[in-house]
Amino acid sequence: MPSQIVIASGNSHKAHEIQSLLGKEYTYLTLKSFPEAPEVKEDASSFAGNAVKKALSLVNWLKQNESLSEGWILADDSGLEVDVLNGDPGVHSARYASEQGAENSTDEANNARLLLELEGKEAHHRTARFRCVIAMAQAGEYSQPHIFEGSCEGRIAQSATGEHGFGYDPLFIPNNYNNSFGELGPEIKSELSHRAAALRHLKDWLDKL
Ligand code: IMP
Fold it and tell me: What's the pTM value of the predicted model, to 2 decimals?
């Protein structure tokens, strides 16, 4: 019987990428199966802090509700760091265009704000990286999650291109390529991405258990 992983995310793109990268050895659930689970305020100052918060919040809630006591809870916190913006949008990536910075904003609005912030900057001033931190917690146990990290270096395009992916993918050109993740599509993204790198570390760790 394969072990079960609950992906503590309501972002279907993220959940889909995680499932296809980790593979069929596991069965998966997402937050969609637990609509009553409380929303987590992602107010930590680091990706790791938010990933741990999301994982432990769900562990705790599942425990209290006796919904699940076996398997793993996987939380991914990720975002984009642009060098010339001193690492912004960083942990604010999902809500970069939001007025108060509290609510998530649409991908289109976030991309538009980023392009505005970088207006007039040439390619060598548009260097950036995606970062992903995964917190893996055991269901039923309120103990410190295991952390796995990955990053992907690249630059921000002058305009959005491509239909694949989500978030900043239409603006992010990985190093050694001339096209955005939005254009390159899932196969290439699954080799190069920050999430793929973090999940490779996680997979190695799971394989040794
Ligand atoms: P989180 O759900 O709080 O981790 O927010 C992640 C945000 O970072 C997303 O809403 C996207 O804007 C951005 N992001 C994270 N990973 C990716 C990716 O793989 N492609 C594009 N944008 C991403």
Answer: 0.96
